[in-house]
Amino acid sequence: MRHIKYILLVLFLIIGVRNVYAFDKTDKIYDYALILSSKEESKIKEKVDKFIDNYNIDMVIITVKHYNQDDLNSYLSEFYTQNEFGIGDNKSAIIAVISLKDEKEEVEVRTFGGATSLYSDSEIRNILNNMSKKEKYYDKLNEFIKYSDSYLVSDDTKNENILSSINFIFIITASLIVSSVISLISFLLHKTPKYKDIDISFVKEGTLEINTKVDKFITTNTKKKAINDRRE
After folding, report:
1. Is 202 inside a domain boundary?
2. Does residue 166 register a pLDDT over 80?
């Protein structure tokens, strides 16, 4: 009987540790509560892998019935840290957990690392609201993946539109600058020359002196003298 107690105690400790330590972080689906069929888990895994490949953001899904942390949020934080989840230098990750502790359903979604700047608080609330609308656990997790993806697609579309606008403005501005430069060059090359007044006198200033010559006539008196014509 005592051996059985020890065995149960060891099993309990293993289960408790397993709830925090996933052992293999390459696996992204941890159905500790056993609420998914093997077929459902396989389908979810395909979608999660596709999400990770598309966005380079870690996505993890957990279902649990027992944990020793004070609340589900603390459990999520410890699970993320201890298992070293997250992709890239910023360790980006988004994690969803469904808890059935004490037969009470609780759902939580958290972002970590670089992913915290990709999802607003309102978007996380919206993901949780859409998960709560579904009755089946499989459908809840599908909603989690669907809306986590849709918000990133929306952000990419916004960024593409912004980049397109910037490119359009750049092209227009560059065209105007090039046109202005071409017009300026054309004007400078073909403008009408401005001629200076040409001095056609060929006389250097200051070298020509003009004197006025005045002829003065002196009055003369003419006397007539008679010549005698003598013949001897």
Report:
1. no
2. no
